[in-house]
Amino acid sequence: MDGYFITFEGGEGSGKSSILKSAKTKLADLGLDVLATREPGGIEIAEKIRDIILDPDHTAMDARTEALLLAAARRQHLTEKVLPALEDGKIVLCDRFVDSSLAYQGFARGLGIDEVFSVNQFAIQDLMPDMTLFFDIAPKKGLARIAANENRERNRLDFENIRFHEKVYEAYQVLVSKFPDRIQVINADQPFAQVESEAVSYIDAYLKNK
Ligand code: TYD
């Protein structure tokens, strides 16, 4: 495959989604062919699955159901959008991917990182990101940012308690030490422009090394 698959990860309020949007523009200005997308979602079928997963009324959803739906959305998004773009030589920037499932469902929900990875392996068939940026911010600070932003929609996972979000954070630390070559940590507790410029330079440097 000629393209590059770069994923953005982090807890709630880490700013990764806004950084992804502006990084896309900056990289396109450098003459790169970039596609920005997100999980769960990114294409019609997966956006429908997303609505089911994140609906705040779905409080009865079982953790395994949640993990399976996320893996199903991931599969469809991968085959319909990500793989064709990579085959076309594009740089795909994806807001969340399998690491989110390992952190949220595997660790925070307690299903087990290895168990959730094997469910996902069925969906991704070894397609791991070439590079992952982890936007690092203490969960309390991230949640405070969300609380301050009145325009942001609240999804079912936003309503989980602080302990849940601390577990997600802890899980990302585990993943960072498990995949040191793939995951690059960015301090997200800095002004937007600084975080954005670090993200763009990491991606640019990575691509120049290839
Ligand atoms: P979103 O509004 O996109 O949140 P964020 O801006 O924080 O990325 O909602 C995505 C939510 O879904 C988020 O709370 C994390 C959760 N999620 C999982 O729990 N597991 C996953 O595999 C993925 C992709 C997302």
Euclidean distance between termini CA atoms: 13 Å
Q: What is the ordering of alpha helices and beta strands? A: EHEHHEHHEHHEH
User: What can be said about the biggest beta sheet?
Assistant: 5 strands, parallel
CATH homology superfamily name: P-loop containing nucleotide triphosphate hydrolases
Strand content range: 5-15%
Bound molecules: thymidine-5'-diphosphate
CATH fold call: Rossmann fold
Percentage of residues assigned to helices: 55-70%
Secondary structure tally, helices: 8
Rg over C-alpha atoms, rounded to the nearest angstrom: 16 Å
Description:
It is a single chain. This protein is α/β, with parallel strands linked by helices and 210 residues long. It has one domain: Rossmann fold (3-Layer(aba) Sandwich). Helix content is 56%, strand content 13%. The protein contains 8 helices and 5 strands. Helix 2 runs antiparallel to helix 3. The longest helix has 25 residues. The mean pLDDT is 96.
What are the salient characteristics of this protein?
single chain; 210 residues; alpha/beta; Rossmann fold; five-stranded parallel beta sheet; 8 helices; binds thymidine-5'-diphosphate
Structure at a glance:
With 210 residues, the chain is α/β, with parallel strands linked by helices. The protein is built from 8 helices and 5 strands; from the N terminus they run E-H-E-H-H-E-H-H-E-H-H-E-H.
